[in-house]
Write a structure and sequence with these properties.
binds magnesium ion, ABC_transporter-like_ATP-bd, binds adenosine-5'-triphosphate, Rossmann fold, 6-stranded mixed β-sheet, 4-stranded antiparallel β-sheet, 10 strands, about 25% strand, ABC_AA/LPS_Transport, P-loop_NTPase, ATP hydrolysis activity, ATP binding
């Protein structure tokens, strides 16, 4: 989408430790409205922890996370979802015993809050159509293939009308055709539904082609951020990857 200039999410000096492990080390970064931002970094760099502190799954030890200017760090997960942040998990987390349509209904009921009139909200039917899940809408989710479960996970986030969607390794385990399908769906949501994305992805080819901007994280801190071209040429980024 068009390069945005408004900051939607501002993360400032966020620190998160687990016992002696520093998962996020005074991490600072911003996500611009309307853009697709890629988040890359080696295993254990702190990417999933960052998603967890943004979405209230974990409370940071210190630091500030502001979404449209509003501080999130004292809010609970459902309140953060009501503010307009949706996410998926590294392992898909649909309610396995419910059908696809029921999963979307539950997500809608509990995820929208009092933001019913949000511009980005789509009907459940529109979302089912977008993900080509028409024929699977009455299937129990645990019977779906991995790619379909991943689509349901994104769809569950989408029916809450998020302004910002966080995707944690949504392409992992998919074959090249499925990856292309997922990428084009993400682009459609970005351009037509107006959602901003922050995407964790290990496949540098994918992240390079999908991202307007890339943030790199290493040992809990931002290494660098900027255009895909600029970030991929950065010596510190190359070292962190070759060092892996
Ligand atoms: N709940 C937890 N308890 C203890 N340590 C944790 C916990 N969650 C994460 N960590 C540690 O924090 C660090 C960052 O982990 P995190 O899962 O955020 O990395 P990641 O960048 O998502 O890695 P990957 O690419 O492998 O998914 C790692 O050292 C990890 O072992
Ligand atoms: Mg992770």
């Amino acid at each position: 989408m068009v390069m945005g200039t408004t900051t939607l999410l501002r993360i400032e000096e966020v620190h998160k430790t687990f016992g002696g492990i520093v998962a996020l080390d005074q991490f600072t970064a911003t996500v611009n409205e309307d853009e697709i931002t890629g988040l890359i970094g080696p295993n254990g760099a702190g990417k999933t922890t960052l998603f967890n502190v943004i979405t209230g799954v974990l409370t940071p030890d210190s630091g500030s996370i502001r979404f449209e200017g509003k501080e999130l760090t004292s809010l609970k997960s459902h309140q953060i979802c009501h503010e307009g942040i949706g996410r998926t998990f590294q392992t898909p987390k649909p309610v396995r015993s419910l059908t696809v349509r029921e999963n979307l209904q539950v997500a809608r009921k509990y995820g929208v809050g009092d933001n019913e009139k949000r511009e980005t909200i789509q009907s459940i039917n529109e979302v089912i159509e977008l993900f080509s899940l028409e024929e699977k809408q009455d299937t129990i989710t645990k019977e779906l293939q991995l790619v379909e479960q991943k689509f349901v996970d994104v769809a569950r986030a989408l029916v809450t009308g998020p302004k910002l969607i966080l995707l944690d390794e949504i392409m992992a385990g998919l074959n090249p055709t499925e990856k292309q399908e997922m990428m084009s769906t993400i682009k459609t949501i970005n351009t037509e539904f107006g959602s901003t994305f922050l995407i964790i992805e290990h496949d540098l080819g994918i992240i390079r082609s999908i991202s307007d901007r890339i943030i790199t994280i290493h040992e809990g801190s931002e290494l660098t951020s900027g255009s895909p071209e600029k970030v991929m040429e950065n010596d510190k980024v190359r070292e962190a990857y070759i060092g892996k």
